[in-house]
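User: quick one
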Amino acid sequence: MEEKLLEIKDLCVEYHTDEDNVYAVNHVDLTINKGETLGLVGETGAGKTTTALSIMKLLPIKIGEITSGEIKLNGSSIISKSEEEMRKIRGKDISMIFQDPMTSLNPVYTVGDQVAEVIKLHYPDYNSSQVEARVDELFLMVGLPPERKTEFPHQFSGGMKQRIVIAMALACEPQLLLADEPTTALDVTIQAQVLQMMKDLKEKLNTAMILITHDLGVVAQTCDQVAIMYAGEIIENGTVEDIFEGKDHHPYTIGLFGSIPDMETKSKRLHPIDGLMPDPSNLPKGCKFNPRCPHCKDICREQEPPVYVNGTQTIRCHLFK
Amino acid sequence: MHKYIIKRLLMLIPVMLGISFILYSIMTLTPGDPAQLILGPGATEEAIELKRQELGTDKGFWEGYVDWLTNAVQGDFGTSYRSKEPVFNEVFARFPNTLKLASSAIILSVIFGIGIGIFQAVRQYSMSDNIISGITLVLTSMPDFWIGLILIIVFAVWLKVLPASGANHWYNFIMPALTASVGYTAGTIRLTRSSMLEVIRSDYIRTARAKGAAEKTIIFKHALKNALLPVVTLIGINLGWQLGGTIIVEQIFAIPGIGTLMIGAVRSKDTPLLMASVLFVAFLSALINLITDILYAYIDPRIKAEYSK
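Assistant: Done. Structure below.
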Protein backbone atom coordinates (compact mmCIF):
# COMPACT_ATOMS: atom_id res chain seq x y z
CA MET A 1 0.00 0.00 0.00
CA GLU A 2 1.42 3.35 -0.99
CA GLU A 3 1.57 6.04 1.63
CA LYS A 4 -0.88 8.89 1.25
CA LEU A 5 0.76 12.30 1.26
CA LEU A 6 -2.05 14.68 0.45
CA GLU A 7 -5.74 14.05 0.74
CA ILE A 8 -8.35 16.50 -0.47
CA LYS A 9 -11.93 15.71 0.46
CA ASP A 10 -14.99 17.52 -0.83
CA LEU A 11 -13.13 20.81 -1.32
CA CYS A 12 -15.28 23.82 -2.27
CA VAL A 13 -13.82 27.26 -2.98
CA GLU A 14 -15.76 30.41 -3.72
CA TYR A 15 -14.59 33.82 -4.83
CA HIS A 16 -16.67 36.66 -3.54
CA THR A 17 -16.87 39.62 -5.88
CA ASP A 18 -19.04 42.71 -5.64
CA GLU A 19 -21.62 41.31 -8.03
CA ASP A 20 -21.85 37.64 -7.21
CA ASN A 21 -20.18 34.51 -5.92
CA VAL A 22 -17.94 32.55 -8.23
CA TYR A 23 -17.97 28.81 -7.57
CA ALA A 24 -14.41 28.06 -8.61
CA VAL A 25 -13.92 24.62 -7.07
CA ASN A 26 -16.86 22.30 -6.33
CA HIS A 27 -16.58 19.13 -4.26
CA VAL A 28 -13.13 18.09 -5.35
CA ASP A 29 -11.60 14.86 -4.03
CA LEU A 30 -7.96 14.11 -4.73
CA THR A 31 -5.34 11.85 -3.23
CA ILE A 32 -1.63 11.96 -3.91
CA ASN A 33 0.76 9.32 -2.68
CA LYS A 34 4.37 10.01 -1.73
CA GLY A 35 6.64 10.48 -4.72
CA GLU A 36 3.78 10.35 -7.19
CA THR A 37 2.95 12.84 -9.93
CA LEU A 38 -0.61 13.90 -10.52
CA GLY A 39 -1.55 15.73 -13.67
CA LEU A 40 -4.35 18.21 -13.17
CA VAL A 41 -5.77 18.90 -16.60
CA GLY A 42 -8.45 21.27 -17.76
CA GLU A 43 -9.29 24.43 -19.64
CA THR A 44 -8.44 27.89 -18.40
CA GLY A 45 -10.82 28.72 -15.58
CA ALA A 46 -11.56 25.11 -14.65
CA GLY A 47 -10.30 25.69 -11.09
CA LYS A 48 -6.88 24.07 -11.35
CA THR A 49 -4.88 26.99 -9.98
CA THR A 50 -7.52 27.65 -7.32
CA THR A 51 -7.16 24.07 -6.11
CA ALA A 52 -3.38 24.51 -5.89
CA LEU A 53 -3.65 27.84 -4.10
CA SER A 54 -6.06 26.27 -1.60
CA ILE A 55 -3.46 23.66 -0.75
CA MET A 56 -1.00 26.49 -0.02
CA LYS A 57 -3.74 28.51 1.66
CA LEU A 58 -2.73 31.40 -0.57
CA LEU A 59 -6.13 32.28 -1.98
CA PRO A 60 -6.57 36.05 -2.41
CA ILE A 61 -7.34 37.46 1.04
CA LYS A 62 -10.97 38.41 1.64
CA ILE A 63 -11.94 37.35 -1.91
CA GLY A 64 -11.22 33.63 -2.01
CA GLU A 65 -12.75 31.40 0.63
CA ILE A 66 -12.67 27.67 1.26
CA THR A 67 -16.35 27.09 2.06
CA SER A 68 -16.16 23.40 2.87
CA GLY A 69 -13.99 20.34 2.65
CA GLU A 70 -10.78 19.11 4.13
CA ILE A 71 -7.16 19.11 3.00
CA LYS A 72 -4.80 16.84 4.87
CA LEU A 73 -1.05 16.69 4.53
CA ASN A 74 0.40 13.54 6.10
CA GLY A 75 -2.86 13.12 7.95
CA SER A 76 -2.94 16.56 9.58
CA SER A 77 -5.44 19.16 8.48
CA ILE A 78 -4.17 22.19 6.59
CA ILE A 79 -7.48 24.01 6.72
CA SER A 80 -7.35 24.43 10.50
CA LYS A 81 -3.73 25.62 10.58
CA SER A 82 -2.97 29.21 11.57
CA GLU A 83 -1.21 31.61 9.23
CA GLU A 84 1.99 31.23 11.24
CA GLU A 85 1.87 27.43 11.04
CA MET A 86 1.19 27.70 7.29
CA ARG A 87 4.29 29.88 6.83
CA LYS A 88 6.40 27.03 8.18
CA ILE A 89 4.80 24.65 5.69
CA ARG A 90 5.02 26.90 2.64
CA GLY A 91 8.35 26.56 0.92
CA LYS A 92 9.35 23.72 3.26
CA ASP A 93 6.80 20.91 2.95
CA ILE A 94 4.85 22.26 0.01
CA SER A 95 6.26 24.62 -2.58
CA MET A 96 4.80 26.05 -5.69
CA ILE A 97 6.12 26.95 -9.12
CA PHE A 98 4.10 29.59 -10.90
CA GLN A 99 3.19 29.93 -14.51
CA ASP A 100 5.16 32.95 -15.61
CA PRO A 101 8.86 32.89 -14.72
CA MET A 102 9.30 36.37 -16.18
CA THR A 103 7.33 37.96 -13.36
CA SER A 104 7.71 35.52 -10.48
CA LEU A 105 11.15 36.74 -9.44
CA ASN A 106 11.62 40.01 -7.58
CA PRO A 107 13.45 42.36 -9.99
CA VAL A 108 15.39 44.25 -7.31
CA TYR A 109 17.14 41.37 -5.58
CA THR A 110 19.83 39.05 -6.94
CA VAL A 111 18.65 35.56 -7.84
CA GLY A 112 21.09 34.10 -5.31
CA ASP A 113 19.53 36.18 -2.53
CA GLN A 114 16.08 35.04 -3.54
CA VAL A 115 17.04 31.38 -3.44
CA ALA A 116 18.91 31.93 -0.18
CA GLU A 117 15.83 33.51 1.38
CA VAL A 118 13.88 30.24 1.39
CA ILE A 119 16.80 28.40 2.96
CA LYS A 120 17.24 31.07 5.65
CA LEU A 121 13.51 31.03 6.37
CA HIS A 122 13.26 27.32 6.94
CA TYR A 123 16.75 26.52 8.26
CA PRO A 124 17.36 29.41 10.65
CA ASP A 125 20.40 27.72 12.20
CA TYR A 126 22.36 27.64 8.95
CA ASN A 127 25.23 30.11 8.96
CA SER A 128 25.82 32.23 5.90
CA SER A 129 28.48 29.99 4.37
CA GLN A 130 26.18 26.96 4.72
CA VAL A 131 23.40 28.91 3.03
CA GLU A 132 25.70 29.97 0.20
CA ALA A 133 26.96 26.42 -0.24
CA ARG A 134 23.37 25.19 -0.51
CA VAL A 135 22.55 27.91 -3.07
CA ASP A 136 25.54 26.82 -5.16
CA GLU A 137 24.42 23.22 -4.91
CA LEU A 138 20.89 24.12 -6.03
CA PHE A 139 22.18 26.17 -8.96
CA LEU A 140 24.24 23.21 -10.13
CA MET A 141 21.25 20.93 -9.63
CA VAL A 142 19.08 22.97 -12.01
CA GLY A 143 21.94 23.36 -14.47
CA LEU A 144 22.98 26.95 -13.85
CA PRO A 145 26.53 28.11 -13.11
CA PRO A 146 26.65 29.18 -9.42
CA GLU A 147 28.74 32.25 -10.33
CA ARG A 148 25.62 33.77 -11.79
CA LYS A 149 23.86 33.91 -8.43
CA THR A 150 24.97 37.52 -7.97
CA GLU A 151 23.07 38.59 -11.07
CA PHE A 152 19.58 40.02 -11.21
CA PRO A 153 16.51 38.40 -12.81
CA HIS A 154 16.57 40.69 -15.85
CA GLN A 155 19.93 39.21 -16.83
CA PHE A 156 18.42 35.75 -17.38
CA SER A 157 16.27 34.25 -20.13
CA GLY A 158 12.80 32.84 -19.44
CA GLY A 159 13.98 29.23 -19.29
CA MET A 160 16.80 30.14 -16.91
CA LYS A 161 14.44 32.11 -14.71
CA GLN A 162 12.16 29.08 -14.48
CA ARG A 163 15.19 27.03 -13.44
CA ILE A 164 15.84 29.55 -10.68
CA VAL A 165 12.20 29.35 -9.60
CA ILE A 166 12.51 25.56 -9.55
CA ALA A 167 15.72 25.79 -7.51
CA MET A 168 13.84 28.01 -5.07
CA ALA A 169 10.93 25.58 -4.88
CA LEU A 170 13.18 22.57 -4.29
CA ALA A 171 15.57 24.33 -1.90
CA CYS A 172 14.07 22.70 1.19
CA GLU A 173 13.33 19.37 -0.48
CA PRO A 174 9.56 19.65 -0.16
CA GLN A 175 7.33 16.60 0.03
CA LEU A 176 4.90 18.13 -2.41
CA LEU A 177 5.57 20.40 -5.35
CA LEU A 178 2.71 22.28 -6.98
CA ALA A 179 3.71 23.16 -10.52
CA ASP A 180 1.19 25.54 -12.05
CA GLU A 181 1.72 25.34 -15.80
CA PRO A 182 5.49 25.56 -15.31
CA THR A 183 6.26 25.40 -18.99
CA THR A 184 3.39 27.31 -20.59
CA ALA A 185 5.35 30.56 -20.81
CA LEU A 186 8.43 28.88 -22.30
CA ASP A 187 9.11 27.96 -25.88
CA VAL A 188 8.84 24.34 -26.91
CA THR A 189 12.51 23.31 -26.86
CA ILE A 190 13.01 24.85 -23.42
CA GLN A 191 9.74 23.24 -22.28
CA ALA A 192 11.12 19.78 -22.91
CA GLN A 193 14.36 20.56 -21.09
CA VAL A 194 12.63 22.02 -18.06
CA LEU A 195 10.13 19.16 -17.86
CA GLN A 196 12.85 16.54 -18.10
CA MET A 197 14.80 18.31 -15.40
CA MET A 198 11.75 18.51 -13.13
CA LYS A 199 11.07 14.84 -13.66
CA ASP A 200 14.66 13.88 -12.82
CA LEU A 201 14.81 16.08 -9.74
CA LYS A 202 11.47 14.83 -8.53
CA GLU A 203 12.69 11.26 -8.72
CA LYS A 204 15.97 12.12 -7.05
CA LEU A 205 14.32 13.92 -4.15
CA ASN A 206 11.26 11.64 -4.04
CA THR A 207 8.96 14.64 -4.18
CA ALA A 208 5.30 14.24 -5.03
CA MET A 209 4.05 16.69 -7.60
CA ILE A 210 0.81 18.14 -8.82
CA LEU A 211 1.41 19.24 -12.38
CA ILE A 212 -1.20 21.67 -13.56
CA THR A 213 -1.35 21.84 -17.30
CA HIS A 214 -3.60 21.82 -20.31
CA ASP A 215 -1.07 19.99 -22.40
CA LEU A 216 -1.97 16.30 -22.62
CA GLY A 217 1.39 15.48 -24.17
CA VAL A 218 3.13 16.74 -21.06
CA VAL A 219 0.80 14.65 -18.91
CA ALA A 220 1.56 11.46 -20.83
CA GLN A 221 5.29 12.08 -20.42
CA THR A 222 5.46 12.93 -16.75
CA CYS A 223 2.42 11.83 -14.73
CA ASP A 224 1.36 8.73 -12.83
CA GLN A 225 -2.18 9.88 -12.09
CA VAL A 226 -4.41 12.20 -14.06
CA ALA A 227 -7.38 14.23 -12.89
CA ILE A 228 -9.44 16.08 -15.44
CA MET A 229 -11.20 19.18 -14.20
CA TYR A 230 -14.20 20.89 -15.67
CA ALA A 231 -16.07 23.83 -14.15
CA GLY A 232 -14.54 23.27 -10.74
CA GLU A 233 -15.22 19.53 -10.63
CA ILE A 234 -13.04 16.54 -11.24
CA ILE A 235 -14.96 14.75 -13.95
CA GLU A 236 -12.51 11.95 -14.54
CA ASN A 237 -9.68 10.61 -12.47
CA GLY A 238 -7.37 7.65 -12.95
CA THR A 239 -3.91 6.42 -13.76
CA VAL A 240 -2.23 7.58 -16.95
CA GLU A 241 -3.08 4.19 -18.49
CA ASP A 242 -6.74 4.58 -17.53
CA ILE A 243 -6.99 7.97 -19.14
CA PHE A 244 -4.88 7.37 -22.23
CA GLU A 245 -5.69 3.74 -22.91
CA GLY A 246 -8.88 2.89 -20.99
CA LYS A 247 -12.09 2.38 -22.95
CA ASP A 248 -14.62 4.30 -20.83
CA HIS A 249 -14.31 8.06 -20.70
CA HIS A 250 -16.26 11.13 -19.78
CA PRO A 251 -17.51 12.85 -22.96
CA TYR A 252 -15.40 15.90 -22.02
CA THR A 253 -12.24 13.78 -21.90
CA ILE A 254 -13.09 12.38 -25.32
CA GLY A 255 -13.59 15.94 -26.51
CA LEU A 256 -10.23 17.00 -25.09
CA PHE A 257 -8.42 14.17 -26.84
CA GLY A 258 -10.40 14.83 -29.99
CA SER A 259 -9.25 18.41 -30.08
CA ILE A 260 -5.59 17.44 -30.35
CA PRO A 261 -4.64 17.69 -34.02
CA ASP A 262 -3.63 14.31 -35.45
CA MET A 263 -0.35 14.39 -37.33
CA GLU A 264 -1.00 11.23 -39.33
CA THR A 265 -4.40 11.89 -40.85
CA LYS A 266 -4.83 14.91 -43.02
CA SER A 267 -7.54 17.16 -41.77
CA LYS A 268 -8.17 20.73 -42.74
CA ARG A 269 -9.79 21.82 -39.50
CA LEU A 270 -9.22 21.41 -35.80
CA HIS A 271 -11.89 19.67 -33.76
CA PRO A 272 -12.69 21.87 -30.79
CA ILE A 273 -15.37 21.06 -28.22
CA ASP A 274 -18.42 23.12 -29.18
CA GLY A 275 -19.52 25.86 -26.82
CA LEU A 276 -17.80 27.55 -23.94
CA MET A 277 -17.17 26.68 -20.34
CA PRO A 278 -20.15 27.74 -18.21
CA ASP A 279 -19.96 30.96 -16.22
CA PRO A 280 -18.69 29.79 -12.81
CA SER A 281 -20.98 32.26 -11.06
CA ASN A 282 -23.98 30.71 -12.77
CA LEU A 283 -23.37 27.00 -13.24
CA PRO A 284 -25.95 24.84 -15.05
CA LYS A 285 -28.16 22.46 -13.09
CA GLY A 286 -27.37 18.77 -13.21
CA CYS A 287 -24.17 17.82 -14.99
CA LYS A 288 -22.09 20.95 -15.57
CA PHE A 289 -21.02 19.69 -18.97
CA ASN A 290 -24.58 19.08 -20.22
CA PRO A 291 -24.89 22.16 -22.50
CA ARG A 292 -21.86 21.01 -24.50
CA CYS A 293 -22.27 17.25 -24.23
CA PRO A 294 -23.05 15.29 -27.41
CA HIS A 295 -24.68 12.52 -25.34
CA CYS A 296 -26.85 14.79 -23.19
CA LYS A 297 -30.03 13.16 -21.86
CA ASP A 298 -32.91 14.59 -19.81
CA ILE A 299 -31.46 13.25 -16.58
CA CYS A 300 -28.19 15.18 -17.24
CA ARG A 301 -30.10 18.49 -17.05
CA GLU A 302 -31.81 17.52 -13.81
CA GLN A 303 -29.51 15.50 -11.59
CA GLU A 304 -25.88 15.73 -10.64
CA PRO A 305 -24.15 12.71 -12.14
CA PRO A 306 -23.01 9.92 -9.79
CA VAL A 307 -19.39 8.88 -9.60
CA TYR A 308 -18.78 5.72 -11.60
CA VAL A 309 -15.85 3.69 -10.26
CA ASN A 310 -14.01 1.27 -12.48
CA GLY A 311 -10.89 -0.04 -10.73
CA THR A 312 -8.52 2.90 -10.38
CA GLN A 313 -10.63 5.09 -12.62
CA THR A 314 -13.54 7.30 -11.60
CA ILE A 315 -15.89 9.07 -13.98
CA ARG A 316 -18.58 11.54 -13.02
CA CYS A 317 -21.20 10.95 -15.70
CA HIS A 318 -24.73 9.55 -16.16
CA LEU A 319 -23.61 7.47 -19.14
CA PHE A 320 -22.04 4.86 -16.89
CA LYS A 321 -24.02 2.87 -14.37
CA MET B 1 27.91 54.90 -13.89
CA HIS B 2 30.68 57.53 -13.49
CA LYS B 3 30.49 58.21 -17.17
CA TYR B 4 26.77 58.75 -16.84
CA ILE B 5 27.21 61.21 -13.96
CA ILE B 6 29.87 63.18 -15.85
CA LYS B 7 27.66 63.27 -18.93
CA ARG B 8 24.77 64.58 -16.88
CA LEU B 9 26.95 67.25 -15.23
CA LEU B 10 28.22 68.41 -18.63
CA MET B 11 24.64 68.67 -19.83
CA LEU B 12 24.13 71.30 -17.13
CA ILE B 13 26.24 73.80 -19.11
CA PRO B 14 23.80 74.30 -22.02
CA VAL B 15 20.88 74.26 -19.59
CA MET B 16 22.40 77.04 -17.50
CA LEU B 17 23.27 79.05 -20.63
CA GLY B 18 19.70 78.71 -21.89
CA ILE B 19 18.20 79.76 -18.59
CA SER B 20 20.49 82.78 -18.29
CA PHE B 21 19.69 83.90 -21.83
CA ILE B 22 15.92 83.59 -21.37
CA LEU B 23 16.09 85.41 -18.05
CA TYR B 24 18.22 88.20 -19.46
CA SER B 25 15.86 88.61 -22.41
CA ILE B 26 12.82 88.81 -20.15
CA MET B 27 14.44 91.30 -17.83
CA THR B 28 15.77 93.66 -20.52
CA LEU B 29 13.08 93.39 -23.18
CA THR B 30 10.11 93.92 -20.86
CA PRO B 31 9.15 97.52 -20.09
CA GLY B 32 10.54 99.25 -17.01
CA ASP B 33 13.91 100.92 -16.44
CA PRO B 34 15.80 99.96 -13.29
CA ALA B 35 17.56 103.35 -13.21
CA GLN B 36 14.21 105.13 -13.32
CA LEU B 37 12.85 102.80 -10.64
CA ILE B 38 15.78 103.47 -8.30
CA LEU B 39 15.79 107.25 -8.70
CA GLY B 40 12.02 107.63 -8.49
CA PRO B 41 9.59 109.60 -10.64
CA GLY B 42 11.11 113.06 -9.92
CA ALA B 43 14.60 112.33 -11.35
CA THR B 44 16.03 114.37 -14.22
CA GLU B 45 16.92 112.88 -17.59
CA GLU B 46 20.67 113.41 -16.96
CA ALA B 47 20.57 111.76 -13.56
CA ILE B 48 18.81 108.74 -15.04
CA GLU B 49 21.36 108.56 -17.88
CA LEU B 50 24.20 108.67 -15.34
CA LYS B 51 22.56 105.96 -13.28
CA ARG B 52 22.16 103.80 -16.39
CA GLN B 53 25.86 104.11 -17.12
CA GLU B 54 26.64 103.24 -13.55
CA LEU B 55 24.43 100.13 -13.64
CA GLY B 56 25.57 99.19 -17.11
CA THR B 57 22.04 99.09 -18.51
CA ASP B 58 22.86 101.68 -21.22
CA LYS B 59 24.44 99.02 -23.42
CA GLY B 60 22.61 97.20 -26.18
CA PHE B 61 20.93 93.84 -25.60
CA TRP B 62 23.65 91.60 -27.04
CA GLU B 63 26.52 93.64 -25.66
CA GLY B 64 24.93 93.61 -22.24
CA TYR B 65 24.37 89.84 -22.28
CA VAL B 66 27.85 89.03 -23.54
CA ASP B 67 29.34 91.31 -20.86
CA TRP B 68 27.34 89.58 -18.18
CA LEU B 69 28.30 86.17 -19.52
CA THR B 70 32.04 86.94 -19.72
CA ASN B 71 32.01 88.14 -16.14
CA ALA B 72 29.84 85.25 -14.96
CA VAL B 73 32.15 82.67 -16.50
CA GLN B 74 34.98 84.25 -14.50
CA GLY B 75 32.91 83.92 -11.36
CA ASP B 76 31.70 87.53 -11.17
CA PHE B 77 27.91 87.65 -11.24
CA GLY B 78 27.82 91.39 -10.56
CA THR B 79 26.34 93.43 -7.77
CA SER B 80 22.74 94.06 -6.89
CA TYR B 81 21.39 97.32 -8.35
CA ARG B 82 19.83 98.21 -5.04
CA SER B 83 22.11 97.03 -2.24
CA LYS B 84 25.36 97.31 -4.23
CA GLU B 85 26.44 94.06 -2.61
CA PRO B 86 27.83 91.18 -4.66
CA VAL B 87 24.71 89.22 -5.63
CA PHE B 88 25.74 85.91 -4.13
CA ASN B 89 26.17 87.54 -0.71
CA GLU B 90 22.44 88.13 -0.73
CA VAL B 91 21.60 84.73 -2.16
CA PHE B 92 23.69 82.97 0.47
CA ALA B 93 22.27 85.14 3.24
CA ARG B 94 18.76 84.07 2.28
CA PHE B 95 19.38 80.48 1.29
CA PRO B 96 19.79 78.90 4.76
CA ASN B 97 16.23 79.94 5.62
CA THR B 98 14.86 78.35 2.47
CA LEU B 99 16.97 75.26 3.03
CA LYS B 100 15.67 74.85 6.60
CA LEU B 101 12.09 75.30 5.47
CA ALA B 102 12.47 73.00 2.46
CA SER B 103 14.28 70.20 4.20
CA SER B 104 11.93 70.12 7.17
CA ALA B 105 8.87 70.19 4.89
CA ILE B 106 10.26 67.39 2.72
CA ILE B 107 11.35 65.28 5.69
CA LEU B 108 7.84 65.58 7.13
CA SER B 109 6.30 64.60 3.81
CA VAL B 110 8.63 61.61 3.41
CA ILE B 111 8.04 60.24 6.91
CA PHE B 112 4.29 60.69 6.96
CA GLY B 113 3.75 60.17 3.22
CA ILE B 114 5.51 56.83 2.93
CA GLY B 115 4.44 55.61 6.37
CA ILE B 116 0.75 56.36 5.94
CA GLY B 117 0.83 55.24 2.30
CA ILE B 118 2.10 51.78 3.28
CA PHE B 119 -0.39 51.57 6.15
CA GLN B 120 -3.24 52.29 3.75
CA ALA B 121 -2.04 49.85 1.08
CA VAL B 122 -1.82 47.04 3.62
CA ARG B 123 -5.36 47.76 4.81
CA GLN B 124 -6.93 48.48 1.46
CA TYR B 125 -10.68 49.20 1.56
CA SER B 126 -10.75 49.09 5.35
CA MET B 127 -12.43 51.85 7.35
CA SER B 128 -9.08 53.50 8.17
CA ASP B 129 -8.03 53.37 4.50
CA ASN B 130 -11.21 55.09 3.40
CA ILE B 131 -11.00 57.78 6.07
CA ILE B 132 -7.36 58.57 5.30
CA SER B 133 -8.13 58.67 1.57
CA GLY B 134 -10.85 61.21 2.27
CA ILE B 135 -8.54 63.34 4.39
CA THR B 136 -5.71 63.28 1.84
CA LEU B 137 -8.11 64.31 -0.88
CA VAL B 138 -9.18 67.31 1.18
CA LEU B 139 -5.56 68.17 2.03
CA THR B 140 -4.37 68.08 -1.59
CA SER B 141 -7.21 70.37 -2.53
CA MET B 142 -6.49 72.97 0.13
CA PRO B 143 -4.35 75.93 -0.98
CA ASP B 144 -1.32 76.40 1.28
CA PHE B 145 -1.98 80.08 1.99
CA TRP B 146 -5.28 79.04 3.53
CA ILE B 147 -3.67 76.31 5.63
CA GLY B 148 -1.03 78.84 6.72
CA LEU B 149 -3.64 81.37 7.79
CA ILE B 150 -5.62 78.74 9.71
CA LEU B 151 -2.47 77.61 11.52
CA ILE B 152 -1.63 81.22 12.42
CA ILE B 153 -5.14 81.80 13.78
CA VAL B 154 -5.09 78.62 15.85
CA PHE B 155 -1.52 78.46 17.14
CA ALA B 156 -0.40 82.09 17.12
CA VAL B 157 -3.60 84.02 17.80
CA TRP B 158 -5.78 81.69 19.89
CA LEU B 159 -3.35 79.38 21.64
CA LYS B 160 -0.37 81.78 21.49
CA VAL B 161 2.10 78.89 21.46
CA LEU B 162 3.97 79.59 18.22
CA PRO B 163 5.23 82.82 16.65
CA ALA B 164 3.37 83.98 13.55
CA SER B 165 6.46 85.27 11.75
CA GLY B 166 10.23 85.45 11.72
CA ALA B 167 13.09 83.05 11.10
CA ASN B 168 15.35 83.39 14.11
CA HIS B 169 14.60 80.23 16.06
CA TRP B 170 13.85 76.65 15.14
CA TYR B 171 10.29 76.99 16.38
CA ASN B 172 9.73 79.75 13.86
CA PHE B 173 9.84 77.01 11.24
CA ILE B 174 7.25 74.67 12.73
CA MET B 175 4.18 76.26 11.16
CA PRO B 176 5.81 77.16 7.83
CA ALA B 177 7.18 73.63 7.46
CA LEU B 178 3.77 72.14 8.28
CA THR B 179 2.06 74.46 5.82
CA ALA B 180 4.51 73.71 3.05
CA SER B 181 4.47 69.97 3.69
CA VAL B 182 0.70 69.39 3.71
CA GLY B 183 0.32 69.22 -0.06
CA TYR B 184 3.51 67.21 -0.53
CA THR B 185 2.57 64.77 2.22
CA ALA B 186 -0.87 64.17 0.76
CA GLY B 187 0.66 63.60 -2.68
CA THR B 188 3.28 61.22 -1.31
CA ILE B 189 0.62 59.27 0.62
CA ARG B 190 -1.51 58.81 -2.47
CA LEU B 191 1.37 57.80 -4.69
CA THR B 192 2.86 55.40 -2.12
CA ARG B 193 -0.52 53.78 -1.59
CA SER B 194 -1.24 53.20 -5.27
CA SER B 195 2.29 52.12 -6.05
CA MET B 196 2.32 49.66 -3.14
CA LEU B 197 -1.05 48.24 -4.14
CA GLU B 198 0.19 47.62 -7.64
CA VAL B 199 3.33 45.87 -6.39
CA ILE B 200 1.49 43.81 -3.76
CA ARG B 201 -0.57 42.19 -6.52
CA SER B 202 2.45 41.19 -8.57
CA ASP B 203 3.62 37.63 -9.10
CA TYR B 204 6.87 37.95 -7.20
CA ILE B 205 4.99 38.91 -4.05
CA ARG B 206 2.98 35.71 -4.44
CA THR B 207 6.28 33.87 -4.87
CA ALA B 208 7.54 35.42 -1.63
CA ARG B 209 4.37 34.29 0.15
CA ALA B 210 4.78 30.79 -1.30
CA LYS B 211 8.28 30.69 0.18
CA GLY B 212 6.79 31.11 3.61
CA ALA B 213 8.02 34.66 4.21
CA ALA B 214 6.31 36.64 6.97
CA GLU B 215 3.95 39.45 6.02
CA LYS B 216 6.34 42.07 7.43
CA THR B 217 9.19 40.80 5.25
CA ILE B 218 6.92 40.75 2.25
CA ILE B 219 5.82 44.35 2.71
CA PHE B 220 9.08 45.96 3.78
CA LYS B 221 11.58 43.87 1.86
CA HIS B 222 9.90 42.61 -1.28
CA ALA B 223 7.23 45.20 -1.96
CA LEU B 224 8.57 48.49 -0.64
CA LYS B 225 11.78 48.61 -2.65
CA ASN B 226 9.83 48.07 -5.85
CA ALA B 227 7.09 50.50 -4.91
CA LEU B 228 9.49 53.25 -3.96
CA LEU B 229 10.67 54.13 -7.45
CA PRO B 230 7.86 56.55 -8.43
CA VAL B 231 7.82 57.90 -4.86
CA VAL B 232 11.51 58.80 -5.08
CA THR B 233 10.78 60.71 -8.29
CA LEU B 234 8.00 62.65 -6.60
CA ILE B 235 10.16 63.48 -3.58
CA GLY B 236 12.92 64.72 -5.89
CA ILE B 237 10.51 66.95 -7.77
CA ASN B 238 9.03 68.24 -4.50
CA LEU B 239 12.45 69.05 -3.09
CA GLY B 240 13.39 70.87 -6.28
CA TRP B 241 10.23 72.96 -6.06
CA GLN B 242 10.69 73.63 -2.39
CA LEU B 243 14.30 74.77 -2.74
CA GLY B 244 13.16 77.23 -5.37
CA GLY B 245 11.44 78.86 -2.43
CA THR B 246 7.77 78.65 -1.67
CA ILE B 247 6.99 82.27 -2.18
CA ILE B 248 3.56 81.98 -0.60
CA VAL B 249 4.71 80.30 2.59
CA GLU B 250 7.67 82.66 2.90
CA GLN B 251 5.36 85.63 2.49
CA ILE B 252 2.76 84.43 5.00
CA PHE B 253 5.26 83.74 7.75
CA ALA B 254 7.62 86.59 6.79
CA ILE B 255 10.60 84.31 6.27
CA PRO B 256 13.44 86.00 4.36
CA GLY B 257 14.12 83.18 1.89
CA ILE B 258 15.03 82.74 -1.76
CA GLY B 259 11.42 83.04 -2.91
CA THR B 260 10.88 86.51 -1.50
CA LEU B 261 14.34 87.52 -2.72
CA MET B 262 13.44 86.61 -6.29
CA ILE B 263 10.08 88.34 -6.13
CA GLY B 264 11.79 91.49 -4.83
CA ALA B 265 14.39 91.31 -7.61
CA VAL B 266 11.68 91.06 -10.27
CA ARG B 267 9.79 94.01 -8.83
CA SER B 268 12.84 96.29 -8.76
CA LYS B 269 14.15 94.97 -12.10
CA ASP B 270 17.36 93.93 -10.34
CA THR B 271 18.67 91.82 -13.24
CA PRO B 272 22.00 90.60 -11.74
CA LEU B 273 20.33 89.60 -8.48
CA LEU B 274 17.49 87.78 -10.18
CA MET B 275 19.82 85.96 -12.57
CA ALA B 276 22.11 84.84 -9.78
CA SER B 277 19.27 83.60 -7.59
CA VAL B 278 17.40 81.82 -10.38
CA LEU B 279 20.58 80.21 -11.73
CA PHE B 280 21.47 79.07 -8.23
CA VAL B 281 18.05 77.51 -7.73
CA ALA B 282 18.12 75.95 -11.20
CA PHE B 283 21.52 74.47 -10.50
CA LEU B 284 20.24 72.97 -7.25
CA SER B 285 17.18 71.53 -8.99
CA ALA B 286 19.32 69.93 -11.66
CA LEU B 287 21.58 68.51 -8.99
CA ILE B 288 18.63 67.04 -7.11
CA ASN B 289 17.36 65.52 -10.34
CA LEU B 290 20.72 63.90 -10.88
CA ILE B 291 20.77 62.55 -7.32
CA THR B 292 17.25 61.17 -7.83
CA ASP B 293 18.38 59.40 -10.98
CA ILE B 294 21.41 57.96 -9.21
CA LEU B 295 19.15 56.76 -6.40
CA TYR B 296 17.05 54.92 -9.00
CA ALA B 297 20.07 52.88 -9.94
CA TYR B 298 20.55 51.84 -6.36
CA ILE B 299 16.91 50.81 -6.05
CA ASP B 300 16.49 49.08 -9.38
CA PRO B 301 19.32 47.06 -10.94
CA ARG B 302 17.64 47.22 -14.33
CA ILE B 303 18.10 50.99 -14.40
CA LYS B 304 21.69 50.65 -13.25
CA ALA B 305 22.29 48.41 -16.25
CA GLU B 306 20.82 51.11 -18.50
CA TYR B 307 23.15 53.77 -17.08
CA SER B 308 26.34 51.82 -17.60
CA LYS B 309 25.66 51.33 -21.31
